[in-house]
Design goal:
There is one protein chain. This protein is α/β, with parallel strands linked by helices. It has two domains: 5-281, ANL, N-terminal domain (Rossmann fold); 289-391, ANL, C-terminal domain (GMP Synthetase, Chain A, domain 3), CATH 3.30.300. It is built from eleven helices and 21 strands. The protein has helices at residues 19-25, 76-90, 105-117, 132-140, 157-164, 167-174, 188-196, 249-255, 299-309, 345-351, 381-391, and strands spanning 5-9, 32-36, 56-61, 71-75, 95-98, 122-123, 151-155, 178-181, 201-207, 212-216, 219-220, 224-228, 233-238, 256-258, 264-274, 280-285, 290-292, 295-297, 313-323, 327-336, 364-367. Strands 6-5-7-8-9-10-11 form a seven-stranded mixed sheet, sandwiched between helices. Strands 12, 13, 14, 15 and 16 form a five-stranded antiparallel sheet that branches. The protein has a three-stranded mixed sheet with strand order 19-20-21.
Length: 392
């Protein structure tokens, strides 16, 4: 197996220039290592061709949410299985609008699905920043392709929220037969708004290690298996799972395993549970659990309660902030629908009384004009935690 060839990914419409390289990679004989062209050549752990999996296609970067970023080894079989299963669940192949960076797995998969489906993707130029007006223009410019009348796009929650707040953006959303949203938790109120507005929304859960989203609206794709282990970690398995991290044998052994029947499994850093309908509910990351006075609080549970019951809040991220008395206290970082609204911890205690135990209701509230992000759509919890600590 040959070593992966560095593949700079341009921004804007020029991103489509990598399609030929990506198509060659999907043969499993010409692996590539995509990276953002404007950020320069990435640092990659040393690796040996003998350690690479058969059919190795793409070494895609993780978001680096814990520790340093890694390169996930995805085979042509894994990427193809993911793309094929996505089209099966959405109702068939179609034309895609790329509205995410193409060097991340969610954007890369838009290109892979287009190649697998035999269609030509359209591109939203993100260099000036994402706007609803630009998205609406890009959606209107999509031409129907023969045999691919269906239209799809993939977004992160921040983009979805901006489009729902804009008349032209909302009309553009409604024009798609499928809108995938993932990369971070989507607020319940935002989901409800989209569905009430007849947006064909599908919430996705997955990561670079699973070739992108592999659980749609809580249910696994046809090629995916899932369970919760004894430590409440979400464990994902099946054809879309990676063969580990490039040049990182110990990290690979810690996170990946293979059954006797050959099924590959990836133990995520997320905590979750399966509800009564058999759907996956992600409660939050294990390393985000807050220990306040000896009580362990999962941020996702608090975030969901605030999103459902505190209607002033547009977006919320819950973190633990160091505290001399409690060890940590629960802090809610929020954005508000009306910036002139005044929201305090006392307000949260009042509105969440009887919904959450008093001990887990946030003792601090920090209001932001926009939640700080790290990577495509992911909240920067470390930055939020640091800012909240400084304000204490």
């Amino acid at each position: 197996m040959s070593l992966p060839r560095p593949l700079p990914v341009p921004a804007g419409a020029e991103a489509l220039t990598i399609l030929a390289d990506l198509e060659a990679a999907l043969t499993g004989r010409s692996p590539v290592l995509p990276y953002a062209a404007e950020q320069g050549h990435p640092v990659v752990a040393p690796h040996d061709p003998a350690d690479l999996p058969d059919g190795f296609a793409v070494a895609v970067g993780t978001s680096g949410s814990t520790g340093r970023p890694k390169r996930t080894m995805l085979t042509a079989v894994a990427l193809t299985a993911s793309a094929t299963a996505t089209h099966a669940v959405l109702g068939g192949t179609g034309s895609w609008l790329l509205a995410l960076p193409a060097h991340h797995i969610a954007g890369l998969q838009v290109l892979v699905r287009s190649l697998i489906g035999g269609t030509s993707p359209s591109v939203l130029d993100l260099r000036p920043g994402f706007t609803a007006a630009a998205f609406a223009r890009a959606a209107a410019a999509m031409n129907p392709r023969q045999g691919a009348a269906r239209r799809y796009t993939s977004l992160v929650p921040t983009q979805l929220g901006r489009l729902l707040d804009d008349r032209a953006g909302l009309e553009a959303l409604r024009s798609f037969d499928g809108v995938l949203v993932g990369g971070a938790a989507t607020p319940h109120a935002m989901v409800q708004r989209a569905r009430d507005a007849d947006v064909a929304l599908t919430l996705t859960y997955g990561m670079s290690e699973t070739s992108g989203g592999c659980v749609y609206d809580g249910l696994p794709l046809p090629v995916t298996r899932m369970h919760i282990d004894n430590d409440r970690h979400v464990v994902l398995g099946g054809d879309t799972v990676a063969h580990g991290y490039l040049g990182e044998p110990q990290l690979t052994a810690d996170a990946f395993s293979t059954d006797a029947d050959g099924t590959r499994w990836f133990r995520t850093d997320d905590l979750g549970h399966i509800d009564n309908d058999g759907a996956l509910v992600v409660d939050g990351r294990a390393d985000d659990v807050i220990n306040t006075g000896g009580l362990k609080v999962t941020p996702g549970v608090v975030e969901d309660a605030i999103a459902r019951h505190v209607h002033d809040v547009a977006d919320v991220v819950v973190v633990g902030v160091p505290d001399r008395e409690w060890g940590e206290v629960v802090c809610a970082a929020v954005t508000l629908h009306d910036p002139t609204t005044h929201l305090t911890a006392a307000d949260l205690r009042s509105r969440l009384s009887g919904i959450l135990p008093d001990a887990v209701v946030p003792k601090r509230v920090v209001v932001y004009p926009a939640i700080p992000l790290r990577g495509p759509g992911k909240p920067d919890r470390a930055a939020i935690r640091l800012a909240a600590d400084r304000q204490a």
